[in-house]
TrEMBL record:
Chain residues forming the annotated DNA-binding region: 24-43
Coiled coil: none
Origin superkingdom: Bacteria
Name assigned to this protein: HTH tetR-type domain-containing protein
Organism annotation: Rhodoglobus aureus
Transcription as UniProt keyword: yes
Length: 184
């Protein structure tokens, strides 16, 4: 692993645990066993390091969102979307943890505002796809609840293993939550 990648890994862990504002370049340097100037050699600022660290996850979420907007919520694609969304959550737990927990307080940081906009677009897509309040709540609980549960499990001392059983269970539960409500 290169110093560049190592710095991103250390920074992401520190940003997720201590918060962006509570993290300094000096602290990241200490964790990586480098000098502050070495970190600044790779990244010109803490904001540039944050962009490099969480930007790829936002790119991935934006790509999921773009495909969802094109393909819609047909039953066939809904299952594929859920699988991709769950895989995204497992792969990007720390990044999503930052979006959920720090997004509202970091609106002036461009990369976090980009994440906030993407999450907002996702919520608006699901909200606009139905007029039924039950369905809107189900979408929020299925997507937001899953993201929150996976991304905060470690902090709540209820770690969830990223294995096939957990993945399958989550996809099944989300599918059940997203099943259309039948009017009586």
């Amino acid at each position: 692993m290169s110093s560049h990648e190592e710095l991103q890994r250390f920074a992401l862990a520190e940003f997720a645990s201590a918060g962006y504002t509570g993290t300094s370049i000096q602290r990241i340097a200490e964790l990586a066993g480098l000098s502050k100037s070495s970190v600044l050699y790779h990244f010109t600022s803490k904001e540039a390091l944050l962009e490099a660290t969480v930007g790829p996850a936002i790119d991935r979420l934006e790509a999921l969102m773009a495909e969802l907007e094109v393909r819609g919520l047909s039953p066939d694609y809904r299952n594929q979307f859920l699988e991709q969304f769950v895989d995204f959550l497992f792969d990007c737990r720390q990044e999503v943890h930052m979006f959920i927990n720090q997004g509202p307080s970091l609106q002036d940081v461009p990369v976090i505002e980009r994440a906030n906009n993407t999450v907002r677009n996702l919520a608006e897509f699901f909200s606009s796809s139905t007029a039924h309040p039950h369905d809107k709540m189900r979408f929020g609980i299925a997507l937001g609840g899953s993201a929150y549960m996976l991304c905060t499990a470690d902090n709540l001392a209820v770690p969830l293993e990223a294995n096939q059983d957990t993945r399958s269970a989550l996809i099944t539960i989300m599918s059940e939550l997203l099943a259309p409500v039948r009017s009586s």
